[in-house]
Amino acid sequence: MPDPARTQPSPPPGTPLPDGLSRVALWTASAHAREFGRSAPYVRDPWAADFVRAAGLTGGPPGDGPLQRLLPDWAVVRTRFYDEFLVGAARAGCRQVVLLGAGLDTRAFRLDWPTGTHVFEVEDPALLAFKEHVLDWAAPSCGRRTTVGADPAGSWGAELLAAGLDPRRPTAWLSETYLYHLPPRTVESVVRTMTELSAPGSVFGAECVNADASSSSFVAPFLDALSATGISWRWQLADPRGWWAQQGWDAEVADLFTLPYVVQRLAPYLPLLSEAAAKCVFLTTGTLNER
């Protein structure tokens, strides 16, 4: 049944997406759409192509360097990694899942959630409205899905609580790519709110840009092309474990090349990947420190 908390109006066909990071969400959707056409996709997202068509997307991330060529496959393995993380967290007891900067994420519909999982999506109301129009009242695969129309870089804590989040219960948080587009002080504010609303046993996932790799010949040309579009990778870390520890979380960085699906998908790019290039981002996960 449709969740009554989903109150954002659906836009008429042809209504444009808001400018800015919605383009990043569409680039990911485009990668998912291409993946869904494979015989054995790592990510099954049947709505991705609908998002791309509804937005009239043409083209992908700017530039034509090696990083740009790798990005669609990277988006797929990153999604697969956090798919497994979130479902594992829910099965371990985090039946509240919050997607911060949810974009066009369809995890609430396409993953095999355990009974009683409640997925919250915090996102700009205009982007949520576009998303709801395309989803067209599809039934979620989780127990309940609630959208929270609020700026995920601003003040959203009260809105999330009003939407039903229980801060006494453990929560699995995910900000897959959103945080590294924000200024560092804004990221600190977002994570502070996340921490304040987290009960013992809560976990998080977030991709972080490696500050030590951003000036490399592999990464820098893409960052230059990206900034020309008005989008930047602004939050960068050299020591993600240390940074997250200061925010109250025990963090780990995934060793990607121990994951068979990563090795298989990225094998064609290995000649391009120096050690620095292979570590240009960190896929981080963590658990709330005991208070």
CATH superfamily: Vaccinia Virus protein VP39
- Annotation field: number of helices: 11
Largest sheet: 8 strands, mixed
Number of domains: 1
Look up the CATH topology.
Answer: Rossmann fold
Q: How far apart lie the N and C ends?
A: 39 Å
Q: Order of SSEs, N→C?
A: HHHEHEHEHEHEHEHEHHE
Q: State the helical fraction.
A: 25-40%
Any low-confidence stretches, pLDDT <50, length ≥5?
1-15
Q: Identify the CATH class.
A: Alpha Beta
Radius of gyration: 18 Å
Proportion of strand residues: 15-25%
- According to DSSP, the number of beta strands is 8
CATH architecture name: 3-Layer(aba) Sandwich
What structural class results from the helix and strand content? alpha/beta
Report the average pLDDT across residues: 91
Bulk shape: globular
